[in-house]
Amino acid sequence: MTQPIGERDLIQLSRGVPPVEAIPTAELCRQTVEVLSEFSGSIFQYAPMGRNPGDVHLREELGQFHGVEPDRLFVGNGSLQVLDLVTAHLARDSHFEVFAEAPTYDRALRIFERRGAKVLGIPIEGDGIDIDYLRRQLKSGAPAFLYTIPDFQNPTGATLSIDKRHALVALAEEHGFPIVEDIPYRGLRYVGSTPPTLGELANPARVITIGSLSKILCPGLRIGYAISDPSTSSDLAALAEDTYLSPPLLCQKVAAKSFAAGLVHANLVRVRDLLRPRHDAAVTVAREILGDALLTVPGGGYFMSARIPTYAEESELLAAARAEGVVLTSGRAFYPNASAEATGHFFLRIPFQSLTPQQLAFGLRKVLEFTERRWACVA
Amino acid sequence: MTQPIGERDLIQLSRGVPPVEAIPTAELCRQTVEVLSEFSGSIFQYAPMGRNPGDVHLREELGQFHGVEPDRLFVGNGSLQVLDLVTAHLARDSHFEVFAEAPTYDRALRIFERRGAKVLGIPIEGDGIDIDYLRRQLKSGAPAFLYTIPDFQNPTGATLSIDKRHALVALAEEHGFPIVEDIPYRGLRYVGSTPPTLGELANPARVITIGSLSKILCPGLRIGYAISDPSTSSDLAALAEDTYLSPPLLCQKVAAKSFAAGLVHANLVRVRDLLRPRHDAAVTVAREILGDALLTVPGGGYFMSARIPTYAEESELLAAARAEGVVLTSGRAFYPNASAEATGHFFLRIPFQSLTPQQLAFGLRKVLEFTERRWACVA
Lengths: 379, 379
Prior knowledge:
2 copies of one chain form a homodimer.
Chain A: E1 11-13, H1 25-39, H2 56-66, E2 73-77, H3 78-90, E3 96-102, H4 106-114, E4 117-125, E5 128-129, H5 131-138, E6 145-148, H6 162-175, E7 179-182, H7 198-201, E8 207-212, E9 223-227, H8 230-244, H9 249-260, H10 263-290, E10 303-309, H11 314-323, E11 326-328, H12 338-341, E12 345-351, H13 357-372
């Protein structure tokens, strides 16, 4: 039996948490103090209500950041909360169907299912969602909406190609379904050029774009937002007002000031420069150790992924890795139909944003070691 | 035609917003700066996840405030968000029944209905919910839960008597339904002594108590919480983690520090002393103008209420009052079955926390004037 392993020694191949050095802490403290001195009379009160409870300065800054009018912005308590409200908004019934990439963000799947959705998984390829597969599925009817993470997808790392973006928007128009695109990692591109969002390619009423400040500024302010047509934006605001009134004004004002002071833009450049070498080193290590099992070279974001053949039971694999200090996330949890995908391989999400090449190599070798073992004899 | 009336001149007989002088702004700014200096390394990061995402210091302070163990506390983004999660937790199906006082908090009704509930209104009397009526309804079956605001109820101002508290808890035990009690105004008692909460009288598994710092410290931090048995607390935490991860750590830490520094307790005393004379003066004015139509002398909280006989259409009454600078809230919106209650009277919620006796008298006289008019000839 090995020694118990402390939290500090764990190799986290699990959550997409920003490394602490990617958060501009001192600057954020400064902005917070400025907000306190400028808005002390209102900052601890309820936020003003009305047509859109999002702080007007923050919506203006976000509008400028994305090149859209502020009335197309809805601000919520983190992007997951925004996704929950968007799901409630688009679910006209207590039973409805959602199409999503398979695999996709596990918490998103749980939100859809809790809201009553049946989720159909559309396979994802190196250049994004499988358009031919989607086209065939649409013959049996359109979903309440399609959920996609087009940039540096969580969990695969794949980015939707420009051709497929056009094709997806055309299918949504043809079959009359809305697209919900989630773009938390979009700003973190380490190589190449950024294709337009689906929202930029389509009619504004066709796409709801969900963004977040968690990966480009900090997660602690819990600022997520949706870009949609102004009428959807008002509907989301009304739904939010009836669910939690508004996000804390303090957090919204700090975010707005961080944009106004140029902090978000400066931090984006800084984080890209910080993570680019980690990405490159991680790709080298993963290629060497995983070979063909590696699914993508992401070129941005936090994640790579691999599909590793194995006879191992996933729960036993996770436990065995954890016992040796390697924390993995369930691969099955990323699939809408967990059981169907669970046979014959382990899907491994590889968050590289906080790991040294040595840590990553150690973690990946452990995963290979455990996937290669037969598990019949493991307690 | 009278002059257009600016926002500043409006007489707000509508929302329960704390007067700005009830918020200890300077102290809150000081606590925030201290939090920034003490926790700068973690405050802008994701909150630690795990069994309970609520900040441990805040749960300890809230536990001490209410005399319960910290593991019975769940902290959320304001008490409305907590109520939404509690509703989702207790709604085992997509269709379920909730019992609630009639009238009750309008946003709570909308939350229940959006989650798929059919709400049955139980009339409320001067000493709280009508126990005999409730007992008769229970013969047809128990609800998924009963929602009550036992202290200085929103919107009536009524407080549940100690005898009825015992009776309600006994009925919940006998018929096996949970009680959700909402106590945002409980600390604001201006006269007399405070009866125990339902949670204090019952088996912990039987009652979920929802509290808020909005009326005793400030609304801007958006801190609401639930007190329940530890297992429900964990379930709510898991539901929250899958919906919005956690409330901002910054807000939770400022609230915790405000407790630790004695600010919450000091502010409670200060706000009671501030609002007691407003309450007393408002009662005098309301008695004089409304006579028997006044339903309660609350002795605490923010609200009185009246039931005023009228032939007026409510929407026209609200518009006419608004045109003369008196902002009213729909009385019908406080009833689960709006239409049934709308005939023959107007239910008036009277928030007195921010009004001078002169403003209140003006507002109430306008309401009487408009309720006494016949409306056939109004455009």
